Amino acid sequence: MNRDILNIGLDPILQFEAVARRKSLKEAAGELFLSQPAVTHALNKLENSLGVQLCIRNRSTFALTEPGKKLYASAQKIKAELKTYQSFLSQSDSFDGMLSIGLLDNLHNQAFEHALEMTLLQYPKMQLNLQVYSATDIQNMISLGELDIGLGIFNNQNDKLTYHAVGEENISCFISEHHELYHKKTLKRSDFNDSNYTWVDLSSRTRQEIENEILVAGKKPPMKVSGYTNNLHSALMILGAGSSVVPLPTEYIDSRDLHFSYRKLDEIFKPYSIKQSLVFNQEFAEASLAAKFLLNQVDQSLTSAS
Fold it and tell me: How many domains is the chain partitioned into structurally?
């Protein structure tokens, strides 16, 4: 005899609910699309498992016992909760949970931005948590379940996470109108011998790492690396000062309303691209309505654009 009802399972409880509501084994069997002997056997087994008689039944009488009435009331509540949850699943706009997304600072991606807009429209009750982190922190927080999705540039990837390429940033070198070479009509590479160059990437580095890995001779010939930043707004400030050549994403600088003019140096320094990716835990993302929807929207945007 097992009086632990949690080990009995849901089917016998819901079958009993139908029997108690119909007050007939035959009618309950028809509703459940089962044979009457099968329903009778399930009811007997449930009573034996609980160690109580749930109903009095014979050819002329059907009545719930006191334990039967208690179980019937509980079964009705369980069924109502399940119907409520089923309704929630069928109504996409009923999602009112949180979608947590981690981003690299100042990252632009049209497919992601469109997908996020569509997700907000699809789930108007959704709570959105959108924060800026480093690439390493984004991956760690996704592994821990603190974030649902991350968008960034991930050079060191985690084997346990899923990465989807969603675009790229085009990096060019720039000088501002305050740079000594800005007004020179024709520029050549040798003009920049010994010019200052600011190293820009998205890593968080210690002072020792910057001194030993970045501010070293020959790191960016023919220029001299004179500074480092991992923040694009700071890179713009350095560019505006006119003391340095600064590499920046063209999409980013073109979107800024700047108080100075600038000149792109693609004819001198070859531009390059950096891959942008979404990162997520496949299992966690599948369990979140909003995360799953956003990822599908990104895929649709990329397919339409290709």
Answer: 2
